[in-house]
Design brief:
It is built from 5 helices and 2 strands, in the order E-E-H-H-H-H-H. The chain is mostly helical and 138 residues long. It has one domain. It has a two-stranded antiparallel ribbon. Strand 1 and strand 2 form a beta hairpin. Helix 3 packs across helix 4. It is rod-shaped and about 100 Å long. The N and C termini lie far apart (69 Å). 11% of the residues are buried.
Length: 138
């Protein structure tokens, strides 16, 4: 299985059938027949997400052939889920583009509350307001 780095993330090739084929050929050439060792080598070579999916199964596979099938199965599910997520993302972006105006529209009759600046009162104005009993809170 080939890997590439994109934006610091590891991207695995989606050709797991080819990976399984190459892995099986290499195992045949090596002469290793112990299932535990073969599963160990396979788990090192596949993406961590797939390993997690396989080990979270109710009964994880006990043979290398079942591992090959599950790796392809979970990778296919992952790719399908990614495809659906991308379609939803594009649809959501299109809905946003059509539902929200590109520029905010200012209502000329709206009151600009935050734009009013009140200067500080002079001591004379402050004293006058106190005598009249005016509110200083607002």
């Amino acid at each position: 299985m080939t890997t590439k780095k994109k934006n610091g993330q590891i991207i695995y090739s989606s050709s797991l059938t080819k990976f399984n084929s190459n892995f099986q050929n290499n195992i045949a050439l090596s002469g290793i027949t112990d299932e535990a060792i073969l599963i160990s080598y396979c788990s090192i070579a596949i993406p961590p997400l797939l390993i997690k999916c396989i080990y979270q199964m109710e009964t994880p596979p006990s043979t290398i052939n079942k591992w090959y099938k599950n790796v392809v199965h979970f990778q296919t599910q992952w790719e399908y889920a990614e495809e659906i997520a991308q379609r939803h993302s594009k649809l959501f972006t299109q809905v946003q583009l059509y539902s929200t105006p590109s520029k905010s529209i200012h209502d000329p009759n709206a009151m600009d509350i935050d734009s009013i600046k009140i200067p500080k009162l002079t001591p004379e104005e402050h004293h006058c307001c106190q005598e009249k009993g005016l509110c200083f809170c607002c």
